[in-house]
Amino acid sequence: MRLSELKGIGPKTEELFSKVGVNSVEELKEYYPVHYDSYTEPQSIEDCRPGSKSAVSVTVTDSVSMYKAGKLTIVSLDVKDSTGKIRLVWYNSPFIRSVVKRGVTYVFRGNIVSKKGTICMEHPEIFSPGQYQSKLSTLNPVYGLTKGLTNNTVVKAIRSAFAATGGVPEYLPEQIAKTFDLMEEETAASYIHFPPDEESLMRARSRLAFDEFFLFILALRMLRQEEGNKSSDFRIPETWLTEDVIERLPFRLTNGQMNVWREIEQDLSSGRRMSRLIQGDVGSGKTIIAFLAMIMVASAGYQSVLMAPTEVLARQHYEKLLAMCREQGLDTVKPVLLTGSVTASERRKVLADIEAGHVNAIVGTHALIQSTVTYRNPALIITDEQHRFGVYQRQVLSERDQPPHMLVMSATPIPRTLGVIFYGDLDISILDELPARRLPIKNCVVGTSWRPNAMRFIKKEIEAGHQAYIVCPMIEPAEDLQAENVTEYTAKLRKQFPDIVIGCLHGRMKPAEKNAIMQSFAEGEISILVSTTVIEVGVDVPNATVMMIENAERFGLATLHQLRGRVGRSDLQSYCIFMAGVQSEETIRRLDILNHSNNGFEIAEKDYELRGPGDLLGIRQSGDAAFRIADISRDRDILKAAGELAAAVMHDDPALVLEEHDLLRLKMREYMHSDVRTIVL
């Protein structure tokens, strides 16, 4: 159903929604809030801290003043209580002078900032004490926006969407929903936007997270069943060639890398079809193991395929493999790159070479699984962060008369017990050592007052010939949400450093534009890259030595650790600056964990212990399609329950033919064959 079919949405508003990735009523209902604005009891002025949103109850004793600053009209009012004084500031709102009266008590609520040593509340809302009392404890959704699209417009549109589409039938049998104490699906879909209270919000979130986990796990189990017998038509003999390559590498593989390589070598030569996950922390050296597997397959006369989630990463893998083949004289390995951006003539040649078997180490993106690609004898499929390709893509690769070996690489830190549930169809190998040549990253957790120092430090690193990342949680400003955004941050930085090349990257950009920016950064043409978490699984830029993360308190520790892993990828000393917008005791305690550990598994475990499964902290706005609600670290109890149900369903009714599973069967059919569904952890 088109958005323009909803009341109040014309072509212009429809175009604005398209900019935030919403192109249908169904997508609008799944455009979840990035935050909830909660009205809390007014506090004393002395407790108002910069970076927070606060409410104060005061009686106005001074007059409202107004003055011009260029084209800007500034209205201000100083108010006080028994603990201190604060300045209220409104912009281009002259009507405030006729609204606020001396001698009257009001509740003012807004963002607290510090300007030249003065504590200010910017553009506060104005309530009578009675009005504010009625607002207490309500939760108001805050959405990711784009210029011209207001939060109020999104709220109205979503209400219209629910009214226009009616109820969705519950696909889970009633008994299952009761057993797992799950809120009804349609109610959860509504309450995630408009929760009547915090408990309802938590239950709605739990239900939607359960659905995301359950459907994904069940889809993988069903796919494993379709794959059937695990015997392989590709028995790859062990070869001395890989041993020679290992000996000639300019670095020594860690014991962990050698152990994982032996497991893969044994799988490939065993006569059984390999389905293995290499799980290793950021920078643990997974790619070289993948290359060794490709060399082993090529030496046996077969093709291997390496799929990466982004075009830039695919190109980087290809160039590294090509360089290694040249340096080591590996004539039997013939790499080729296939991505969506190759020219038509290049594509025709690559496709012909793949079909004829002239190339045998094929690297690329989703372009590798299109129907136009005909492989000669693919014996091994490697997916880098395979959950980004989703179930459908995995299914495409397995639906061959001679299914290939499957090798999956992931840097997502999942404890083994959860990995068995989530990756139940894969054997798991863990890389838990970092290469010895890497220097530990130096970390610091600071408040926003330290930002000028951080900028001076970044400039110094740039002048030394290095590069830096700056990560913001938002793409553009959002109403009622005080967090740094990529668009405005980039503009400010370009004014501050006019002689430095600064790039801007986020998930709403077109793939070609994203690839061009990442390629420019990888080649050193861009010195500072301002980005959302879209770079979390990015390219290897050894020259990048600084990662600064704004509003670090809004991310989970596991995400922060993944982002930190973009630097420290060479023998250069690297640094990570965690900039906390809100410096509460709890925030500092959480972020301080990153000061003392570089182990992703340990960090994920401590993150779970501190935050608990119900915490709503964090903004998921990378721009990628994702687990929109679920989080493996935070929602491990929900993951376990979803895994139990998937196992029970597969045991009792693997083909979903029972009448009670009629709606589940339809749901799974839609899920399994959606070629746009991808999963991001």
Keywords:
681 residues, alpha/beta, DNA polymerase, domain 1, OB fold (Dihydrolipoamide Acetyltransferase, E2P), Rossmann fold, seven-stranded parallel beta sheet, six-stranded mixed beta sheet, 39% helix, 19% strand, globular
Overview of the molecule:
By secondary structure, the protein is an alpha/beta fold. The protein has 4 domains: 1-39 and 139-166, DNA polymerase, domain 1 (Orthogonal Bundle), CATH 1.10.150; 43-136, Nucleic acid-binding proteins (OB fold (Dihydrolipoamide Acetyltransferase, E2P)); 230-431, Rossmann fold (3-Layer(aba) Sandwich), CATH 3.40.50; 442-597, Rossmann fold (3-Layer(aba) Sandwich). It contains 23 helices and 21 strands. The strands form 4 sheets. A 7-stranded parallel sheet has the order 11-12-10-13-14-9-15, with helices on both faces. The protein is globular, with a radius of gyration of 27 Å. 44% of the residues are buried. Mean pLDDT is 85; it is low at 612-626 and 675-681.
